[in-house]
Amino acid sequence: xxxxxxxxxxxxxxxxxxxxxxxxxxxxxxxxxxxxxxSPILNLFYHNVCHQADHKLIIVNGFSLLVCARCSxxxxxxxxxxxxxxxxxxxxKVSLILFKFALIILVADVIINNIIFNDYNKLSAFFTxxxxxxxxxxxxxxxxxxxxxxxxxx
Length: 154
Prior knowledge:
This protein is mainly alpha-helical. The protein contains five helices and two strands; from the N terminus they run ααββααα.
């Protein structure tokens, strides 16, 4: 594998890692002074990507994450997958069928929990988000590496 791909994967891992630290900073630091000061700014920032409904937030170490259970799952799924992609160094090709399957599972969970039963289940939201985030990450990295980076080398 080329150095460009390795550096690219490392860069993406660091970006996703920073994103995940941002929405969980208060929980990870146990409510340190820095996290309490930065929390209102981060809250506004993450509010642009998540509805942040109180009953849908995961609480860790007595503090809620700044994104809901489903969004937490999506971002952590991407982070975990980026670690495996970074250390495996294999070429990635993901079929559109797998992406559609992950999307159907995610949408079905939303419909079942929010419309049919009207009872939000943080656990199912987190795990369907985790699966969707992993597949989305693989799909995006595959497209970038196989179409953009390869064309750049030609």
